[in-house]
Amino acid sequence: MSSTAPQIDYEKIKGVHKIPLEELYTSGHRTCQGCESATTMRGFIKVAGSRTVVTGATGCMYVANTSYLTTPWIVPWMHTQLGAGGSSAVGMAAGLRALKRKGKIKDEKINVINFSGDLGAGDMGIGGISAALQSDYDLLIIMYDNESAANTDIQATGLTTFGAQTTFTPPGTKHPIMQRRWKKNVAGMLAVGHPTCRYVATACATFPPTDYLNKVQKALAIGGPTFIHTYDPCPKGWDYHPRFSNELGELGIKCGIYPLYEIVDGNIIYTWDARKTGKGRIPVKEFLTKQGRFDHLQEEHFTHIQKMVDTMWDEWEMPGVAPIKGILKARV
Amino acid sequence: MSVAVAKAKSDQSGVYEREDLLNGCQAVAQGVCLADVDVIAAYPIRPYTEVMDALSKLIADGKFDAEYIIADSEHSQFEIVKHASSVNARAFGGSSGTGWMYGMEALVVTATDRLPPLFVVGNRALDDPGAFGVEHNDAMAVRDMGWLLCWVTTPQEALEHVLIGYRIAEDKKVRMPMGLAMDGAFLTHSQHMVKIPSPEAAKRFLPQYDLAERRLHPDNPISVAPQVNEDWVMELRRQNWEAAKRARGVIKEAYKEFNEVFGNRYSAPYYFDEFMTDDAEAVLIGVGTVAAPARTAARRLREKGQKVGYVNLRWFRPFPTVELRECLSRFKAVGVVDRDFAHGSPDNCGILMHEVRSCLYPAKNRPAIVNFMGGLGGRDLSIADAQKMYDITQQAAKKDSMDEFVTWIGLRE
Amino acid sequence: MIKRVEVNYRGIFQKNLGKKIGSDIVMIASRMGQRAFSNGRYSDSPERNGIPCKYFAFVSPDLSEEELEAECGAKLEIDEANISVVLDDTMCKGVEPWGWHGVRPINERVVKDGCLLVVSKKEHNDLLKFIGKKPYNYRLAILDGDASLAGLWVNKDDLTHEHILGGIAAIDPTLISIEAVESYLMDKTKQKHRAEAARAAYESLRQEAKPPRVKTVTPNDGIVWTHEIPVLPKWFEMQEGAVVPAVKRGFEMGPKGQSRNAMFKRGTTKTQRPAVRFDLCTKCTLCWVECPDECFDPTTDGFYDIEYQYCVGCGKCAEVCPVKECIVMVDELQFEDDHSPWEHWKKDSQEYITWVEEKKGKARVSYPFVTGKGITVTQGEVMPEGKIVPVRKTEEVEA
Is this complex scored with an ipTM above 0.90? Predict the structure, then answer.
């Protein structure tokens, strides 16, 4: 069963040469060398443009993006609390809408964007984001997922990959791996749970090139509350040399551990089709062994992760999106 | 009650357009409506909930124009209010008891971001066990965070203090969040005839909210609250300290302006009201609805020749240190009524007791001071209870020293 | 008497190493009967890859634990150091850990007759080209070695830790003696080669060693430090509500055409910088697209200039560049200034190519995916002008 995706009226960036040149999040931030989340941050504001207000939830990209009395932001930006990503966006969108309606400010399109991490958006603030996605405000929530509480020097979150070393999940002599939770499926959960939300996507800042930027464009153009989950390799927590940030994102997508898709009005579009019928997948081991956080993994762990990824793509009714394997007949 | 008795001169000239039977919650809703609030975020918890019930109906009927958001938790509710306020929208929220505490993180940052939304707190005991009745620990939890905090005693005052509250909070010299506290049940759910100001009069009193150079808007590119290290926090705390100090002056200005528009509704020093204190020897001081039994008891004891009076403290933050010190040091004994607790604190007193006692320490004539813990968890404080408290306070005036400062009122023992 | 040791290290890359050195100084000094403790500079956390950080160790033969704590522990930064260890020599260009700190000279805390102990493959004069002048004599000691960069989880066990302990013992035997270092390492690890590594480093820094690795630096040595230390505003000079003015919007094509955060440049984060051969550039845009620090400036002729003051040297641009030898990461100490490479090239392309190839040299230091697993050095080649050799297929650049 297939359907055609509804047309979204947006300005597509056709190739990297067409990416807007001007920076609205500019040099001089306290991010790591090779920080992929900085690229994610830089990207969304580039395409959103200057008529935008942004909140940044507590997290490494809050603390990293500035130190006090300096800022890398050219557009208005405000801190919000760790679990307040969704509510900060609702508050701003509601305020702006009321002021416009009452004629207190000019009636123009002002983008409202919140940027929250996996700990903030995926764990603590998921209730607030759920509520935001039920609303009718025009807002975009971007969850930058570096798979850890990176700001407190790398602790496991609900989105940390199975087996990864963090300071909360150190390998030990009795327990070779302490991170035994499977990564929370936030984008899928939010898409499935909010039937009136028109746009949910997963993305990666630089792979495939322009894919993420166009997803931001679509999310802002389609109207209503929207959500994008970005996969942000983190040289600090994943323990790889900063120069490889781009490659790690690419490998994560190509091995299928991070499905890349968008859901537009209930239609799934794979923007990197890792199904066997599509582009297929490289072994997850090729991705995992390039990171120090998996250095302690044993063969059985690689096998387990591979099996879980294969199940996700080969057995789910909506591969990579929702863990529903089929409908069974009720036994009376 | 003095405020209710005084007939406003301009009453006849249409500043109050009608009268209606409203409980405290409904009165606050009327105030919010008159303040032309732009954004309201709701989340249910008894007893404040009815404020939002009333507002949602006003919106449903087209009598009030605001963005109305049903939040998913108090934390979200308060954050919505905070961020609406940051884009220069007048914003309103509220809560009670543990709900207020659930959103505490958001309440803290609203103050440190120096944003001026107004929150109503329908005072409620803290769990566990779950209890609905009044206790003041909820609202008082923000007392040291950079909040404005005041208690009202009637629905009329509740309505008017929404307007007065925004006027003070949004003042350029202040810009602090405003906590409007009212006792659960006794005020939130008690219906009285309330005079409702006309929108024109409300507008004349309350200027438009203007966060000016601090509003978040594409025309005013700023970064709000980037991470600080130890190089900056002292300076930021000092700014907030100064604002809280300046608020005392702005409160006076606001009441004077209110009186100009609405007739002489409130009298100096505004932060508190005195009742039968002129030649009093022993007085009680408290916040909230305990004022009614305390004033009634005072009146009756006066008839018996006892020189007692009551001080109703309206503004708890900023604390009216100078004025209250001057007032209370006139008496021989002061009894502080706490509808809250501070377990394990000095002399095991309540929060208000600590504040009042600390305020009196530098006074030349320090009165004897005793503390009453009463009405906790919504238990009533009766006229008889108030008479008992006056008795104990008067006895304290005769004593040279105290062994026990605290008396529990209404406890089964 | 208090002996203060500060360890300057690269955030995250040397976090474990820096802490290990500080901790072991305390353990060894304690075994010698002294009071000692260590801590990190609290403001450095959360650390960022590459950002200059500090770890401290304090030792006293005569003060009580509490007095030592009061003198050193109750402060977040020290005023003076008897020994400043520098785990990566590129920090000799100065350190700027956060905004409003300013770029500080690496020897800022070194006391008179104190010692700056640098791990480096360079000679004294190579380093003094970058180090600020001091009004008094101090010593500059060089321990032979590469910056030992690793990650949070996979450490590089290249004996740098043991070398530093041995080096400190040579500089001030009263702080920790070489015998105490050796016996501690033997007791702790039972591995003789660790004690031997410490001893070798100790020997290399002794007065008698040839060539001498410890030299006295006089007030004539070093450069005039031009970076100002910002004066922090008073409480009433700051905007209320924790509000900070945004960077003023501004963009035009060409060098420095993009407006940037003036109060925090953080170029001192880099250990390497990208050197570009514009004549090999295909204008694919990827260096600019991938840069997480917005330090590439598009030029009117379709190239990308680099604003090195803001470049943190991550190497992503070199990694994604599809052309052989077009962008190469080069040791930061090869460069005296941050001038615009594109302007240089436009001025005289032949001279620029000669200049940049000289800077690049032949050795290409590259890191494996997992930083701590050791560097490899390969031989680069000088590409003839305009000879474009593709090295990496870029996927779906044009969507």
Answer: yes
